[in-house]
């Protein structure tokens, strides 16, 4: 018997093994997500030992304008950029001077705008990773449970890769979301039940012969999938000129994105690609689904599940798997976790659009709103460099702003009517 | 009196003057769009004489991942990348192997996917140019008439630049489009009338003191605005490895985009950045608004206006200003102009989504549908390298595909129900 590390059966680049986040137990790379010893979450362990810092930096800078520029740091084969995938990433880091003025930030404020991804949310990053893992493991169907952004990302990625896709959603989703998920031509199955029922069913399917050959991006491919969020950290630092920001404001759904951004920043420090100095990570939730924020404020280490009721549906996970890790990171780095209510979310969406021309999804309203609140509370230092994440696109959550966003005036097509309405220069 | 060329009053980089497309009369750079001699359209005349080919290529390749990498070839100041703008472009050129197989293209098929722009349409390219011209001329309000994509692009660009915006639309637009245009916080004025009434009113406003200081991106800033489409040609060639494609399929609304793509390709040849060899440009229209296609097929040089009736609303210009130029280019290059009906547009949207994971606006359905038709007709050679433009995002025209895009099946959350529906692997 060979050791798990010495003979990985698949080529996923620098990925050496899966390692349990809780007990450190290592197993070979495979489509598993929970530790056989302690049921803790498995994550990718890498072998970066061969890298020379400056060679690596040059290799990255010469790479494609998408996440595959970081292939040496991801669980993907070295030739990943040549395979059909949706190639997300290298989205804009917008220098948000107008927003900074409104919020009183003097140390530099940036919005990492992931609405520029192929299906207009950060989910393209994680799905692109899961797709490579699915290929490596010989899966022929890409699947997931979803209520929105993820469904589109999986449908699009599978289409490009020539894999079958089968996405499970609650049967009573709004028609617009169904269309966005269905247009890529994969199978889209409505489950009579709520999102929890959909998830439970998917877990059942993984253990059944009917699910053989199926890669569920956020279940049995989760360790690979989750690594996609590291690329947000890489891009932010490279776009800042290989520099760590002082403060980051990151939305919390399952909490996975925030923990992987922290992992990515630590890797850049260890690899010598950025200077080793402190950074603070702040978590952002909607008040209507704020289990991590509530636990943070109460000083708890565990997260008590909530029943979500918020317009920020892409963040509405009442029982976030990575909640305890998020609490640890926020406390360890000197950050915090905060939440805003629906009205504040809408105000923040409009603020970002009005100041920077970026139309964010409700999740972007959450991070911008929380940034404002953290400054008011004195928890976020406006004199430090701050990066706020927008992880999705306002076109997908038009309803959130529709009720009070409309015409300034209605006039007849005449100069008289124009002047009567007080519209002149 | 100095000659118009010797003393441009504004710094717009290599732009030397405005030149009439019909009679060649030159005037200094300014916010004018029609020749004072013959009423022909004015366009930008450049001075590229100082460029060394290889130095220029290196300068472009070292530039930012947006249209400003081509600043040396555009009417913008050299430091344009440092000013607040929405920085569109450098969108993906997707190697569409799956679509190629379906269409029988063997020479290489690519989709230039402009849904990746900041407000998810190619309009960001032209508005970003107009914004720079507006700044150069000291305008304080950015304006336009629009029924959709342009309104959002103007609103977003003005917000980023800190200019006032005032956009005019027909008062009875669908609520979704109104929200997309209004969210950026500028003034959005509904005009009681149709799009023609809106346009007429805008022309009146330009001549009135009430419109002083206003830059209408597609009227008095049109010569600058239109140049933005050249960047599509530049990017396509650079992304192909500084190579001309053999064939391009471009949508026709006013026809400006197609004529400027031709201009961009010719500039690259003249500058030595690509090899001088033939290329064919094909124009694509919707049957319900096909004045150029009708004229092309009839062998006419003039275009007879139509009353538009098509789901491809972003292409629904019944009296396209650049129609005659488009006819000339299609004939001169050995291309053609073709049209597809609404059903074919929807089929093509789905085909592109299913094969490449790209969810296109109706305009993208038009170009993909026309590509298919041109191959069937023998007018487009499937053995040659072909680039098809997708100029917008499917999220903005969900209604076009909503009626027959939905759930594959609805099941109970049980394996039995799953198997009964025939969904197993």
Helix-strand blueprint:
The structure is a homodimer of 425-residue chains.
Chain A: E1 15-20, E2 26-27, E3 42-46, H1 53-61, E4 93-95, H2 97-103, E5 109-113, H3 123-136, E6 141-145, H4 149-161, E7 164-170, H5 175-182, E8 187-191, H6 195-206, E9 214-216, H7 222-227, H8 230-239, E10 247-251, H9 256-270, E11 280-286, H10 291-298, H11 323-333, E12 337-340, H12 342-356, H13 362-376, E13 386-390, H14 399-402, E14 409-411, H15 415-420
Parallel strand pairs in A: 5-13, 6-7, 6-9, 7-8, 10-11, 10-13, 11-12
Antiparallel strand pairs in A: 1-2, 1-3, 4-5
How do you describe this structure in short?
The structure is a homodimer of 425-residue chains. Chain A is of the alpha/beta class. Helix content of chain A is 36%, strand content 15%.
What descriptors fit this protein?
homodimer, 425 residues, alpha/beta, Rossmann fold, 6-stranded mixed β-sheet, 14 strands, 36% helix, globular, threonine synthase activity (chains A, B), pyridoxal phosphate (chains A, B)
């Amino acid at each position: 018997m060979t050791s798990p590390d010495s003979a990985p059966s698949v080529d996923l680049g620098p990925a050496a093994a899966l390692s349990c986040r809780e007990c450190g137990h290592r197993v070979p790379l495979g489509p598993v997500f929970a530790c056989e010893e302690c049921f803790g979450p498995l994550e990718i362990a890498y072998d970066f030992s061969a890298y020379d810092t400056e060679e690596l930096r040059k290799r990255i800078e010469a790479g494609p304008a998408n996440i595959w520029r970081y292939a040496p740091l991801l669980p993907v084969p070295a030739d990943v950029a040549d395979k059909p995938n949706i190639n997300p990433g290298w989205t804009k880091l917008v220098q948000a001077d107008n927003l900074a003025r409104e919020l009183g930030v003097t140390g530099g404020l940036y919005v990492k705008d992931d609405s520029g991804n192929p299906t207009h949310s950060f989910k393209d990053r994680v799905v692109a990773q899961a797709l490579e893992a699915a290929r490596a493991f010989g899966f022929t169907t890409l699947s997931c449970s979803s209520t929105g952004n993820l469904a589109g990302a999986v449908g699009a990625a599978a289409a490009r890769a020539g894999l079958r896709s089968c996405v499970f959603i609650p049967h009573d989703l709004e028609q617009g979301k169904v269309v966005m998920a269905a247009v890529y031509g994969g199978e889209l199955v409505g489950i009579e039940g709520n999102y929890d029922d959909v998830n439970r069913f998917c877990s059942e399917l993984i253990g059944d012969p009917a699910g053989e050959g199926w890669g569920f991006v956020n279940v049995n491919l989760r360790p690979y999938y989750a690594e996609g969020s590291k690329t947000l950290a890489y891009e932010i630092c490279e776009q800042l000129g290989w520099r760590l920001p002082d403060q980051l404001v990151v939305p919390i759904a399952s909490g996975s994105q925030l923990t992987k951004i922290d992992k990515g920043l630590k890797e850049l420090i260890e690899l010598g690609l950025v200077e080793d100095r402190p950074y603070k990570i702040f978590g952002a939730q909607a008040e209507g689904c704020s289990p991590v924020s509530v636990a943070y404020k109460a000083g708890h280490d565990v997260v008590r599940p909530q029943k979500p009721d918020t317009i920020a549906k892409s963040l509405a996970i009442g029982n976030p798997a990575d909640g305890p890790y998020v609490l640890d990171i926020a406390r360890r780095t000197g950050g915090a976790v905060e939440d805003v209510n629906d009205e504040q979310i809408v105000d923040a969406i409009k603020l970002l659009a009005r100041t920077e021309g970026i139309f964010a999804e409700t999740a972007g309203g959450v991070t911008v709103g929380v940034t404002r609140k953290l400054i008011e509370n004195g928890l976020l230092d406006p004199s430090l460099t701050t990066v706020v994440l927008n992880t999705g696109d306002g076109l997908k959550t038009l309803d959130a702003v529709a009720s009070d966003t409309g015409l300034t005036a209605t006039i007849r097509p005449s100069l008289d009517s124009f002047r009567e309405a007080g519209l002149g220069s």
